[in-house]
Design goal:
This protein has one domain: Alpha-Beta Complex (Diphtheria Toxin, domain 1), CATH 3.90.175. The chain is about 20% helix and about 25% strand. A hairpin with a 7-residue loop joins β5 and β6.
Length: about 150
Amino acid sequence: MITAWRLVDVRYAGDAFNGEGAYRTKGRWHSAGTRIVYTAQNASLATLELVARTRRPQLLPEYTLISCHFHETLVEEVDQSRLPADWYDSPPPPELQQIGTAWARARSFAILAVPSAIVPSELNYLLNPEHPDFRSVEIGLPRPFRLDFRLLT
């Protein structure tokens, strides 16, 4: 079994795995209108991903950390050798959104493993809540998470 982690605003903990947030706005690996749930290989990577997206640290809300567990057979891994040379840039190249959106629509696997742009040797897992096998993903209970503000100074 693989364990992945998701850090979310405590207000959205109940909806953390429905893909609604991704549906409303585009991300590195998907276009708007696509339900995807971003998770990280470990809690520390989830923290770094959050810090990288934070524009106004003084407005940070309370967060909750949620684990999820899934079987390896549900995972397809992106072939990193086929990614554009600038895949880790910000803003990301549009090809990445095309890859993730096409994967989500194809529904061939419930989970897509992609490299983290922050730590390329580690993985983020994209979960497709519209895939039939998504039901087998075990979602843990939300736990309070306190962000150490030294990371933001």
